Structure formats: C-alpha cells, structure tokens
Amino acid sequence: MAERVAVFLDFQNVHLSGHGLFESYGLPLYRCVPDPAGVADLIGQRRSRASEVTAVRVYRGRPDPNFQPLPAAANDAQTARWTHDRRVQVIRRQLNYRGWTDGMPPQEKGIDVALAVDLIHLALRGQYDALVLFSSDTDLLPAVETIKGLRLGHIEVACWSGFKPLRIKGTNLPYCHFLNKDDWAAVIEDWTDRI
Questions:
Q1: For the chain, percent of residues with pLDDT exceeding 70
Q2: Helix (H) or strand (E) holding 18
Q3: Where are the beta strands (DSSP E) in 72-152?
Q4: What value, to the nearest 5°, has the Cα angle with vertex 43 and ends 152 and 38?
Q5: What is the DSSP pairing of strand 33-34 with strand 188-189?
Q6: Which residues have CB under 8 Å from 169's CB, separation 6+?
C-alpha cells in the first residue's frame, strides 16, 4: 500500500535557490517559476517506499497590489492555476513594505512561522505517513528537530543539489531528496504574458 505523503514548499526559497543555481543565462524569475505539484511529484517518485503525494502545501508572500500591481496579479494567477490540482493549498501572507520607499525590497513576514506551525500541527494529527519539507532555510530546523525528537511522525527534507540540506546537528538526518538541474528544467514554467 502506498504511503501518504505531504510536501511542504518554502516557495521563495525553492524558487530563488533553484534560479540562482541553474539559471546561468540570467533569465528573469518570472521565466522560470517552479510548479509546486511537479516538484512534489518528483519527490514522491524518488522515495524508496511506494508513495502517493496527497498534499502539496505552498508557503509564500503576496505582493500588495497597491504597491506592486503586476507581481500581485502574477501571484494571484499562479495561486489560481496551482490550486486546480486539489492536492495543492497555497498559504500566503502579505509582504511587508517597511523601508520600501528607501529602496528596500518588500519582505516576507510570518511565512516561516506559518510553515513551521503547520508542519508540527500536521505531524501531530498523523494523517500522513511522511512529511517532506523543501527548504534550505535553517529557521525551519527547530520544527524538523521537534518532529524528529518527539517522534511525532516521519519527516524528510528536500533541496536543490548544490545547497546544504537541513540536518539535525551531528547526524545525517533527516533523509534528504536532492533535486538537480534536470529536475529544475522539468518543473519550471514561463509566466511571460500570462497575466
């Protein structure tokens, strides 16, 4: 019987780290946007146990249309497209524009916390056989350590080849799925003229 797997994507981390590693031609970010269900399915196919990805949870900031109308429209369109797949749920929080008029880019606020809380909450509920976190952000490591340390469920991580995976100090745990340049090419979509 196939294991039920939930994949959690720290979307900005997944997108920016993949773009930085694999887009040597300087393509703009909107020309190579990873499809969350495609990423999750690659991970599910690579697991050593028979697996079915039954949930794909995407965590990302949402631009304010009053400040960034085109990026906000793109973010909304991507969310609408991705959630046609019933497994996909997009959890968004408004970007913070403090300092934006002084040239500071808008910042995600609360996304890592929302992801960490959901990861632990779903581990406690026990409705999945495995949870897989795709991120290289060490701010999420305490959630991984909590799930592993309290034996709340089976957790794995994923990252692009070339990044250091999240690991519990002094161990090679949790297991990491490394996705490579060919995987990146297989899951990205060009969002030019789609808004």
A1: 99
A2: helix 11-22
A3: 88-94, 130-134
A4: 125
A5: antiparallel
A6: none
